[in-house]
Amino acid sequence: MASRTPNTDATTQQLKDDLHHLSRTVEELVSATADDSRSNIKELRERAEQRLKDTRERLEARGERLYGEARDTVTHQADACDRYVHENPWTSIGIGAAVGMVIGMLIGRR
């Protein structure tokens, strides 16, 4: 399992901060509705909508970036595996045969 990178930790912290700010704004909106002050409600609603929009955009951007990083990592690993098999065909055949025997033995025990 891969260890967490400083970039991942920063992303996680930013997400926590975004959600904290959003929840605080929503709490303010709920408190303001108790006062029933129309101008105050409108201002807080606009702030809440803006923070929600900003948070959604950040989450979408992070999701796209994480997807791209995962895709690049998988592609790199598949290329490395392909290169190894082409450079060491007999070793690859031996590994495949050993794995097949183990799986066959496990299935045969049932």
Describe the structure.
This protein is an all-alpha fold. It has one domain (6-108). Helices cover 91% and strands 0% of the residues. The protein is built from three helices and no strands. Helix 1 (6-35) packs antiparallel against helix 2 (38-87) and helix 2 (38-87) packs across helix 3 (89-108). The longest helix is centred in the middle third of the chain and has 50 residues, at 38-87. The two termini are 31 Å apart. Its main location: membrane. Belongs to the ElaB/YgaM/YqjD family. The chain crosses the membrane at residues 90-108. Residues 13-60, 82-110 form the DUF883 domain. It is found in: Cell inner membrane.
Features:
110 residues; mainly alpha; 3 helices; 91% helix; YqjD/ElaB; Membrane-anchored ribosome-binding protein, inhibits growth in stationary phase, ElaB/YqjD/DUF883 family; ribosome binding
